Amino acid sequence: MKQLNVLVLDDEIRMRDEIEEFLSGQQFLVYKAGVPSEAFRVLENTAIDILILDVKLPEMDGIEVLKKVKAEYPELEVIMISGHGDMSTVIDSMRHGAFDYFQKPFRLPEINHAIERTRRFILLSEKLKSTEHKFELVSNEIQNIFGHDLIGKSAAMKNVVELMSRVAMTNTTSVLITGESGTGKELVARGIHLLSARKKQFFYSVNCSAVPETLFESEFFGHKKGAFTDAREDKEGWFEIANNGTLFLDEIGDMPLTQQAKMLRVLEEKKISKLGSRIEVSVDLRVITASNRDLFALSKISKFRPDLYHRLSTFVIEIPPLRERKDDIPPLLEYYIHFFAEQMNKEIKSIDRELIEKLTDYSFPGNVRELRNMVERAIILCDGDSIGWENFRFSIPGSGDEAAGDSIQENNLDLAEIEKSVILKALKQANNNKSKAAELLNITWQSLDRRMGKFGLK
Question: For the chain, which end, N or C, has fewer CB atoms within 10 Å of the first or last residue's CB respectively?
Fold first, then answer.
């Protein structure tokens, strides 16, 4: 839950400190002031939710402070405290908008209970419950369709789900999904499609890095029979196939510059014309793109068209890497263990605590995809009904019989070095067979070939 900001205005240092110490332990963010002028400076610069206000103060009477606060900050909840509990002061406090009143000495838990009864606290609690409920609905719907736990339990992934559900309510808004390889960008794209009004229409996924530049127009826009030498029949392009639905373009950063202008024109005009035809056909679809590269940075150095970037990034969803959401590792681990155990007709009754601890400490350069592949290998190696570290240790660089130099250190996470290291390991495991290595990495061999060139591995 978002922390509520509480301001304590009391001229007694001991009272301020006691309230601060108690409320800080209850997950409130506490500000303190000894005089009204100091309190109003805090109010000017900080969004305070609750004011705990003493009646007897220097500079200005507490009731006068209450009147001024309610005039300038009508939404602010005020709880009055006083060493003099005469009825007229209580009545004045309530008349001028105080939420509650306590006579000193009081028990500190009573203040906490009063805060929990305020409208601010109730609204925040209801918002949290609504968000949790929405998260469960979205997660369950996606899981029911895919049989796959996309989300995990971390705050970061709950935010991703919230963004998915919001943009799904629109019909044509372009979405750019960013994140490292293996974080689940296509699954997020499918989730948006399935939560939208287009869910009964076609979702078509294209890996841009796998499309040769010479075939770009034919694949995206289609062609008429005879448009070129091998065009033996009419062919629908991907924009037509996904018409009325969703077109997902993965690795959009690999699209050749020469073709990006044509892509932009379609996005702007919502019309295409096939190769060999002058007839324009209208298309109605949502385009979702994804990239593990920084498109904005690429646009600054003329490696990606700035106008296309701004057209694609109307709504951006960033998926954090698994190493930044450690809370998701245990539930994902448990899901994949049961998923692959069922596939292989094995019964896994227990998961060793050491395994969970070691995997939670691991950096996962390959993200969720790496965890998935790791569990699949471990289930193959597991002969009993309990799975532990011994089934996983050979899957992690630096563990088992791996050379120490192959390990990736947590305190030296250079993404380029990680990518190079993972490619080298895949090539070694595949005996330098590029097709098999690409399959292990879950990328196309063309994409692997391009990455190998980038690191001088050819």
Answer: C
Calpha distance 173→89 (Å, rounded): 57
Rg of the chain over all Cα atoms, to the nearest angstrom: 30
Give the largest CA-CA distance in the chain: 98
Q: Are residues 437 and 310 in the same domain?
A: no
**Do 75 and 204 lie in a common domain?**
no
pTM over 0.70: no
Burial class (CB in 10 A: 0-12, 13-18, 19+), 402: middle
**Which regions of 168-245 does DSSP assign to beta strands (E)?**
175-178, 203-207, 222-223, 235-236
How many Å separate Cα 227 from the centre of its chain? 44
- 308 contacts 287 by C-beta, under 8 angstroms: no
Whether residues 288 and 253 fall in one domain = yes
Contacts 24+ apart (CB under 8 A), 300-308: 303/257, 304/253, 304/257, 304/260, 305/257, 305/260, 305/261, 305/264, 307/264, 308/260, 308/261, 308/263, 308/264, 308/267
Helical H segments across 276-328, by residue range: 295-300, 306-312
End-to-end CA distance of the chain: 51
3-state class (DSSP) for residue 30: strand
Place of tokens 């332990």: 25
Domain boundary among 412, 427, 444: 412
Amino acid in position 242: A
Answer yes or no: do 86 and 235 share one domain: no
pLDDT digits (tens, 9 = 90+) for 383-406: 888 999 888 877 776 554 443 334
| Residue 436 shares a structural domain with residue 397 | no
- Helical (H) or strand (E) element with 108: helix 108-117
> Quick check: 249 and 184 in contact, CB under 8 A?
no
Q: How far apart are CA 441 and CA 249, in angstroms?
A: 19
Which residues, including other chains, have CB under 8 Å from residue 277's CB and lie 6 or more apart? 224, 227
- The structure tokens listed for 449 are 């070939």
Residue 274 near residue 222 (C-beta atoms within 8 A): yes
Asked if 327 and 402 sit in the same domain, the reply is yes
Which one, of 431, 415, 364, lies nearest residue 392 by Cα?
A: 364
Host domain of residue 237: 152-318
**pLDDT of the residue at 318:** 95
CB distance 207 to 438 below 8 Å: no
Per the structure, the count of domains in the chain is 4
Verify that 359 and 300 share a domain, yes or no.
no
Query: Which residue, 51, 62, 50, is CA-closest to 89?
Result: 62
What pLDDT score does 414 carry? Answer: 52
